[in-house]
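Target chain:
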Amino acid sequence: MMNGLKALFQVRETYIGIAAAIAFQLIFFSVWMTAYDGVNDRVKNLSIGVVNEDDGMGQEIALQIQQQAPFAFKTYTSIEQAQSAMNERKIEMIIQIPASLTESIQTGSETNIIYWINQSNASLTKTMMETTAFHLHEQVNRGFYPLQKNEAASVFTQQLQQLPMQTELADAIGEAVVLTLHSIQDQPIGSAVRKTNDVDGFAANLVPLMVIISSFVGAMVMVMQHEAAASLIHERVSKWQLFFARQIINIGVAFLLPLLTTGLMGIFNISSQEHFLTIYTFQAILFWSFLSLAQVFVLAFGNLGMIFNILALSLQLVTSGVLVPTALLSDGYAKVASWLPATYGADGYYTIIFGGSASSITNNLQSLAIIIAVSLIISFGTVALKRDKKVSIMQDSSESKIIPRPIR
């Protein structure tokens, strides 16, 4: 046993494995704790839109919402305009004030403020919007209850002035008072929450996170194994032959894997708002971008590149917008998010699973293509700077065959 232990500690990979275990703890704690620190202080970065269709009391409600809402406030002239902005994830919720609001309050009839909440978003965002809708509605009703009483008192005064001054005056006044008091409600305005881009089943919410974790971890392991394989044959094959061969394998696997992804989504009844070809292409480009990014660190640092890939994994989970919306992150992490493929992968899969703007998939594919191109350029440059071991070995071998002649 001691011989085996001694032999293991004479191999560099043993220390790298121990370092990786330590790095996982250090990196994940450091990244996650700093990324999510102060999230509650940045809720103003989220936005809600208000569509006021009522020219009367609706103006007061819109102003009250603007003063009490914890998020940024945007005004839209039509519900169609607001819904377009929500599908593009520019706003997280729409508050629609109907045109009949003032009339309904005056007559005592039922009326609803409609809260549109986009389900194609991070779970935290959806929960925050639903909670906000409830509290905002409570505040609106609390503010309009005395207004409705004043409105009822005004109606009562008008009725009193029209009453004839006869013996049955007392009965008439009593009846008017009863009718007026019965018309007063402590909840004059109702609410209706409508969830857009909604999908049945809780599991659908986990698909973007699951795809990111499985794809990037798979890419990490695949790249590391290919690096190990390359180290075994580098004496027989040139560095450029190895590099381009690895790129062909990466592309082949990237365009085969989506068949498994779409098949598993079908087996587990994960519905989609997009066609098969769209999902296939998006997953292929996403996995290719993960492979290209993971490859950069391994080509540059060898086995030590695994440490950088662990950091990349942690950063992508934090900044992708799956667990916490990117708008709630600090400026530094938000900028990092724009350089990582998981950000665009998560956004694209929200559109694929829940629906949304048709341009979202295209925009995300363009961003992923840029990441692939930049990663490949860096990888190409890294390989170019390395010494070709095959050529070096061949030169050393040819020099060893030269036998000097003795001087006569």
Notes: The radius of gyration is 32 Å. The chain has 15 helices and five strands. The mean pLDDT is 82.
